[in-house]
Amino acid sequence: MAADTAIFVSKRLQRAAFAILCLITAQFVLASCEPEPSPMAARVGTLGGY
């Protein structure tokens, strides 16, 4: 009985941990795909001071 409960809880925790890992991985993938915003000073310098 206790072993069955432990296995059930373990399976639920595995699903939750897997979901969290998927979310973290998705955030890293999305962050690597988007170009980093350039600083405001660099934008002003490339516009010729306008």
Radius of gyration: 23 Å
Percent helix among the residues? Answer: over 70%
Whole-number mean pLDDT: 75
What class would the helix/strand composition place it in? mainly alpha
Poorly predicted runs of 5 or more residues:
none
Largest sheet: none
Which shape, going by the Cα principal axes?
Answer: rod-shaped
What does this structure look like?
This protein has 50 residues and is an all-alpha fold. The chain has one domain (1-48). Helix content is 78%, strand content 0%. The longest helix has 32 residues, at 2-33. The radius of gyration is 23 Å and the shape is rod-shaped. It starts with a helix and ends with a helix.
Keywords:
78% helix; 0% strand; mainly alpha; single chain
Topology:
Elements: H1 2-33, H2 40-46
Quick summary:
This protein is 78% helix and 0% strand. It is mainly α.
